[in-house]
Specification:
6-stranded parallel sheet; binds adenosine monophosphate; globular
């Protein structure tokens, strides 16, 4: 395996690198090797990758690497097509973020009561993972503030479009700072 496939070849924070060793990720998957250098460099990236390819860790590491956990403002938003995917994504980002002290990652999805989410939002999370409709609802109520957002991830963006989320996503986009990094994943298995 060439050196370029090792996470240590990337300009990642030491806390992320040591945690990757601890959780047993030794080498990058193909999608990680192809996208992480650009993500870390600050470029917008579109990754075409199916579930199981390691795409979550790719964008997860990209957004975590530039996150300032000492600043309690929402710096990254990950939109997912379903609650199940949002839960999986949040779980994976939490795993990757184990080495970062005091990091708060919140899941905001529809189909569950709003009240507990409002309580969790009393202190701004660093990262929000959610479905477009529920995130928009919080933005409208101003219970979520994204003026300091630095990274937007649209996970399985093609699926979100298929599921009719385009209007909600457009409304969310209007409320984000123009200067931000955009990371998109699209799946291979495009359902029509
Ligand atoms: P995903 O495609 O994001 O759903 O990831 C699929 C699975 O691969 C998840 O269980 C991850 O924990 C795991 N994974 C991601 N990146 C790596 C890696 N570099 N080495 C080993 N496992 C990984």
């Amino acid at each position: 395996m060439s050196n370029s496939n090792k996470f240590s070849s990337l300009d990642l924070q030491p806390s992320l690198l040591s945690n990757l060793l601890e959780i047993g990720y030794e080498e990058m998957t193909l999608v990680q090797a192809e996208t992480l250098p650009q993500m870390i460099g600050g470029s917008d990236v579109l990754a075409r990758a199916k579930t199981g390819s390691g795409k979550t860790a790719a964008f997860g590491l990209g957004l975590l690497n530039k996150l300032d956990a000492t600043s309690f403002r929402t710096q990254a938003l990950v939109l997912c097509p379903t609650r199940e995917l949002a839960d999986q994504v949040a779980k994976e980002i939490r795993r990757l973020a184990r080495g970062i002290l005091n990091i708060k990652i919140l899941t905001l999805c529809g189909g569950v009561p709003l009240r507990p989410q409002l309580a969790s939002l009393q202190h701004s999370p660093h990262i929000i993972v959610g479905t477009p409709g529920r995130v928009l609802k919080h933005l409208a109520k101003e219970t979520v503030k994204l003026k300091d957002l630095e990274t937007l991830v649209l996970d399985e963006a093609d699926r979100m479009l298929d599921m009719g989320f385009i209007r909600d996503i457009k409304k969310v986009l209007k409320l984000l700072p123009k200067k931000r990094q955009n990371l998109l994943s699209v799946s291979y298995t495009h359902q029509t």
